[in-house]
Design brief:
Oligomer: single chain
Strand content: 25-35%
Distance between the termini: 90 Å
Largest sheet: 7 strands, parallel
Shape: elongated
Number of helices: 14
Number of strands: 34
Radius of gyration: 46 Å
Helix content: 10-25%
Structural class: alpha+beta
């Protein structure tokens, strides 16, 4: 900082003091044609103690060692020519604001719209207006103080560090009359105190139609420059240092994948605080110099312009940058052959964002990208031997080496029993759908090679023929009567069940399913139906199906049946698939502990391949296959008879049970074995 002498300024003050003593009766005096506070400001710069909300810039050498871009400077100047000024060519006063010598605001009094105080608030970082120049007509509202109130609120609301240009024009007194007698008005005092807090030392001496202006920085507590006179124009100015806003000239390269570097060229990059790729994806970046920065293409970026942000500057954008995808490659299959439903591991590179895996003959497969180098895929139904195709957006399809689909079909009788409902797409027993004998045969023919028993859930709507059709396929038939709160419907179901048994078309009779769980009937009502069927069909085992908890809490029911027919669903109780068999075994053992001498058959269990998560139980094709295979292995190892739920998927159940209601089948609605559900 240059050193200056205060001697000339002191001489000016001594001279003014002498003049005032000589002209004591004259209150309107010329303080100076132009009084600049810059010299005093520089001399006492170290004494400034303020913390502006907007950083204040100065013209000192303090930035020289900060490693930032050279600052640009602008000169801000204000002038005021009062209506009493001798050289005033106008009838009214004039207020003007300049930026680097160019007028950006000029107003006259009277009809010129500038009467009173004119104030420009300047952003110290850019040198631009924070908002349009404001005018406060303090003379027009002298009786109410409304303009002074508004001006005070405006000034107090500005952030510290704001540069202010203030100039009066024409009748701008703070509620003064033309004799410079101050009116006793509270707002008058508030206005004076506000301007004094901004650094004015002369506002209390201001009189009607004087010239007065000031440049100051809010928060510094003193003016950068102030001028006041009665007969001439006055001016005040200051210099503002700014860091210019960035511009962009180019990018290199113009395309690249996520994680790659992009160099952006331009100017004024020092101070940049944000770089965003298209899709508003924020990037990690480094400002290499004032003319160059390097950004890393972030996750989520899409093709488009890159946006550069810098405080108090408008965002600037580059030309289009194309985000490319690192394309995938293949190295090996493990195993190279397998059955439908088995898992295959594909190894390669850049598997993230793979969108499809298709086996030969264009059969879409369920797959999981386990890492960037590995995909686990399930061989889909209908797949044939040949290469597997892996697809990824923006890349050419990649084919693996040939995979051999094994076609070994398991022999008949490998499952103990299946819960069987023959309904196909569009059919719903609750809506009165009728099942033809032909449809029963078609559906039963599919499953007959893989099970010993079938179990049905009703005797109406054509299901009364199920036992006969099952016997034609040499299957055992567990025929059920559907019971509800409708006693008339119950009577029809029970009567039909007895007729089926007496006709020799049933090997096992089931009186109701989960009646106690739904609270459709009392225990006594249910036992009465069971006893009636037992009496009408001697020699055929009779039971009811319900969840394990109801068997544990109803010993009279156990006494009434020939077989304990228990439903156990780890899925519905929120057990994870990994814990499901242990969960089922625990409940099965609890039922065995209370069954007495009655056999225990698991009447229903299974796992859905889709639907809603229940606790830790997650439906998926993989989990359905996992549970199915492990349950069958457990049942065989422990010699447990069972009816697996269920043979075919039934779309109608989704309406009543949620999406998982349609996802329990080993076979889909078209009669195809679902992936991973081959009989183990």
């Amino acid at each position: 900082m240059k050193r200056i002498s205060l001697f000339p300024l002191c001489m000016v003050l001594i001279f003014l003091s002498f003049a005032l003593s000589e002209l004591g009766s004259i209150r309107a005096v010329m303080i100076a044609n132009t009084i600049s506070m810059e010299a005093l400001d520089e001399a006492k710069q170290s004494e400034l103690r303020f913390s502006p909300a907007i950083p204040s810039h100065d013209t000192s050498d303090a930035h020289s060692n900060l490693g930032i871009a050279p600052l640009q400077t602008i000169t801000l100047r204000t002038t005021s020519r009062g209506a009493n000024a001798a050289e005033n060519p106008f009838q009214y006063g004039v207020a003007r604001f300049f930026r680097n010598g160019t007028i950006f605001y000029e107003r006259t009094g009277g009809g010129g719209g500038g009467r009173g105080f004119n104030i420009a608030a300047i952003n110290p970082l850019t040198g631009n207006l924070l908002e349009p120049v404001r005018n406060f007509d303090t003379w027009g509202t002298r009786d109410t103080g409304a303009a002074i109130q508004a001006m005070t609120g405006f000034l107090n609301g500005l952030p510290n560090g704001t540069y202010l240009l203030i100039a009066v024009c024409d009748d701008a007194g703070l509620n003064q009359d033309d004799s410079c007698n101050r009116l006793n008005n509270g707002w008058n005092q508030t206005g004076i105190q506000t301007l004094e807090s901004l650094g004015s030392t002369q506002i209390r001496n201001y009189c009607f139609r004087n010239s007065w202006c000031m440049v100051t920085v809010k928060g510094e507590g003193r003016a950068r420059g102030e001028g006041m006179t009665q007969n001439t124009e006055v001016s005040a100015e200051t210099t503002l240092a700014i860091t210019p806003c960035p511009t962009v000239s180019g990018i290199n390269p113009i395309s690249g994948p996520v994680g790659s570097n992009v160099v952006i060229m331009g100017t004024n990059f020092t101070g940049v605080n944000a770089v965003k790729f298209s899709n508003n994806a924020s990037a990690t970046f480094a400002v290499n110099s004032n003319t160059q920065l390097t950004a890393i293409v972030p996750n989520g970026a899409v093709p488009g312009s890159i946006t550069i942000g810098k405080p108090d500057c408008p965002d600037v954008q580059t030309s289009i940058f194309t985000v490319t995808v690192p394309c995938h490659t293949f190295s090996r299959l493990n195993p190279a052959s397998g059955n439908v439903g088995s898992n295959v591991i594909i190894t390669g590179n850049n598997f993230a964002d793979v969108i499809s895996v298709n086996f030969f003959s264009d059969h879409s497969a369920t797959f999981t990208v386990t890492s960037a180098t590995q995909i686990t895929v399930i061989v889909p139904a209908g797949a044939t031997s040949g290469p597997i195709t892996i697809s990824k957006s923006g890349c050419n399809d990649v084919r693996t080496s040939a995979f051999t689909v094994q076609t070994t079909v398991p022999g008949p009788g490998m499952l103990y029993g299946l819960n069987f409902s023959p309904y196909t797409e569009g059919q719903d027993p609750n809506q009165g759908s009728q099942i033809s004998k032909k449809q029963l045969k078609k559906r039963m023919r599919i499953i007959a090679p893989f099970t010993k028993w079938i179990r049905t859930f009703g005797t109406s709507g054509g299901l009364d023929k199920a036992g006969q059709v099952a016997h034609n396929f040499e299957l055992k038939a567990a025929i059920g009567a559907w019971l509800s709160r409708d006693l008339s419907a119950n009577e029809r179901e029970i009567s039909a069940l007895i007729d089926i048994a007496q006709a020799g078309n049933a090997d096992f009779l089931i009186v109701g399913s989960e009646v106690l769980l739904r609270d459709d009937l009392s225990e006594a009502q249910l036992i009465a139906y069971i006893n009636r069927v037992k009496q009408s069909a001697p020699g055929i085992p009779v039971t009811t199906g319900d969840v394990y908890g109801n068997w544990l809490s109803h010993p009279n029911l156990i006494a009434a049946v020939d077989v304990v027919f228990v439903n156990i669903y780890p899925y519905w109780e929120g057990a994870s698939v990994n814990d499901a068999i242990a969960f089922l075994d625990n409940r099965y053992q609890q039922v065995k502990a209370v069954r007495g001498d009655k056999p225990v058959i698991i009447s229903e269990t299974g796992w859905p391949s889709c639907g809603n998560r229940v606790g830790d139980a997650l439906p998926s094709p993989e989990n359905a296959s996992f549970y199915f295979r492990r349950f069958v292995a457990w049942a065989r190892a422990n010699d447990v008879p069972y009816f697996y739920f269920e043979a075919f998927e039934e779309a109608w159940k989704a309406k009543y049970e949620g999406p998982q209601g349609a996802c329990w089948g080993i076979w889909d609605q078209n009669g195809n074995v679902k992936p991973g559900m081959q009989i183990p």
